[in-house]
């Protein structure tokens, strides 16, 4: 495409921003990433604001406003080297999510809303994607840069530069690669450039460019040759120049090397000891450092309960070697995870696999006592010294246990009369403090007193009484008892007679027996004379 340029300079580049996807510490510890502190920012971004890794894409955007119909040009520069170390390999799509799986969150959580905070945020927009040009003119060996770009474009599907506008039709644009700074025998080129030529038509006044930069990896360029090995802020993206626009050459953003997680995290093993009793905090963790990892010391070692991600249950600072053993006691049941912090970079890696473990707890148990039914001991018995009850300890899926429990010696209940009661109490408590209490009542009649008999008095019937008169004189008896009703007393009698005609007698002996077998007796004697001569 052939462009002709006017001399209008009222239009301006407003801002060049990069996406700060939040501190790694927050990304690891905030339960919901909706509360993660992410933002589009100008200037320098360090570990307090962002977390990236080699092979990931840094999203960028640039806003131009006040546009009128005409032709414009923006030249975007980016650092590729510092000495023999690589910084940004190539440009790619802003929404490329490669290598986000290194961190415990979804890419969409931290890629950012591209128009948030721009003048196009709340207006109707259209956009188009423009193929990024293949880098060329690179020094010997940098075919790896081209291979990486082609892989991102052709295999992953991320090789476009996007332009948003407020018009009804997309912007007409052409992208050109410029190999940038000249090479010499001593220094590598420090920057490459993307030239964006675009035309504005009626109805278009604002554009937002969106693209990304791939962070160079040591596994591609060799040990000590990636951006992670560059001190300071090697990831520069800047507006080099422009045509027909104001604000040219003054827009630049940098990403600090501290925001790129590059160190090899130590390895460890976390071993949990479970909670034996439901609801208690008797679990423990043993953290064993198995390999130091060759990382930059000192380290901060932190272990977190997933239900409380802000307060570590273990925090050990200043460990220059982590191969050792740490013990954490008094923990409740929960999943636990380990973070190893690199205090120099102020970033951390959540160690996966063996350095995660869960403290489980036993099921909640219920104790149920089934006491024997109460019964009566009868009369004047002996109270048992104790009773035996069945016990069921039910622990759900952990199973159940059947056992027995002895009662206490019983407590005599008041008030006391002929019928007494004794309350026996059963209490069972398992090893975890789960308990149940039941009672059984026994009764017993205590009666050692015989009934009292009421009968006729002895009598002398004189001469020649009739049989009826003798029977009446012997009579019958009644009885009362301290415990039983009169109707419950059994009365029997036995008669004896004797003598001679001038001195006859009869004795009737009455016996009264209560329900407890206590017996009393009484005798009635009748005398008479038989004399018919």
UniProtKB/TrEMBL annotation:
This is HYR domain-containing protein.
């Amino acid at each position: 495409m052939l462009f002709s340029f006017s001399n209008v300079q009222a239009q301006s580049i407003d801002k060049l921003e990069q996406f700060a996807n939040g501190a790694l510490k927050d990304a690891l510890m905030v339960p919901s990433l909706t509360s993660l502190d992410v933002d589009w920012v100008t200037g320098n971004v360090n570990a307090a604001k962002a977390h990236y890794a080699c092979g990931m894409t840094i999203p960028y955007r640039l806003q131009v406003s006040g546009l009128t119909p005409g032709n414009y040009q923006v030249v975007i520069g980016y650092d590729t080297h510092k000495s023999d170390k690589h910084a940004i390999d190539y440009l790619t799509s802003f929404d490329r999510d490669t290598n986000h799986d290194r961190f415990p969150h979804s890419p969409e959580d931290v890629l950012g809303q591209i128009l948030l905070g721009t003048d196009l945020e709340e207006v109707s927009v259209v956009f188009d994607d423009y193929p990024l040009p293949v880098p060329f003119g690179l020094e010997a060996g940098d075919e790896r840069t081209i291979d990486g770009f082609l892989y991102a474009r052709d295999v992953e599907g991320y090789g476009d530069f996007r332009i948003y506008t407020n018009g009804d039709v997309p912007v007409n644009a052409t992208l050109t690669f410029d190999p940038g700074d000249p090479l010499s025998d001593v220094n590598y080129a420090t920057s490459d450039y993307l030239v964006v030529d675009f035309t504005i038509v009626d109805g278009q006044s604002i554009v937002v460019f969106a693209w990304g930069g791939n962070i160079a990896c040591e596994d591609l360029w060799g040990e000590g040759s990636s951006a992670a090995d560059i001190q300071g802020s090697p990831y520069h993206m800047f507006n080099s120049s422009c045509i027909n626009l104001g604000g040219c050459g003054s827009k630049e953003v940098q990403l600090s090397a501290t925001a790129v997680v590059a160190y090899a995290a130590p390895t460890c093993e976390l071993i949990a000891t479970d909670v034996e009793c439901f609801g208690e905090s008797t679990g423990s963790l043993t953290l064993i450092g198995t390999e130091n990892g060759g990382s930059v010391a000192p380290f901060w070692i932190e272990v977190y309960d997933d239900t409380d991600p802000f307060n570590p249950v273990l925090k050990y600072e200043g460990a220059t070697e982590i191969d050792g053993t740490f013990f954490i006691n008094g923990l409740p049941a929960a999943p636990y995870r380990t973070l190893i912090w690199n205090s120099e970079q102020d970033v951390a890696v959540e160690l996966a696999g063996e350095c995660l473990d869960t403290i489980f707890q036993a099921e909640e148990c219920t104790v149920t006592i089934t006491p024997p039914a109460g019964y009566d001991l009868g009369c004047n018995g002996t109270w048992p010294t104790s009773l035996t009850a069945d016990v069921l300890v039910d622990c759900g899926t952990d199973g159940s246990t059947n056992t027995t429990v002895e009662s206490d010696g019983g407590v005599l209940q008041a008030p006391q009369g002929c019928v007494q009661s004794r309350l026996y109490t059963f209490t069972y408590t398992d090893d975890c403090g789960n308990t149940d209490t039941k009672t059984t009542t026994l009764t017993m009649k205590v009666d050692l007193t015989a009934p009292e008999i009421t009968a006729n008095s002895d009598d002398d019937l004189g001469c020649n009484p009739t049989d009826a008169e003798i029977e009446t004189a012997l009579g019958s008896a009644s009885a009362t008892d301290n415990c039983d009703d009169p109707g419950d007393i059994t009365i029997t009698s036995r008669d004896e007679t004797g003598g001679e005609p001038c001195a006859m007698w009869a004795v009737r002996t009455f016996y009264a027996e209560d329900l407890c077998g206590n017996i009393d007796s009484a005798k009635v004697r009748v005398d008479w004379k038989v004399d018919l001569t």
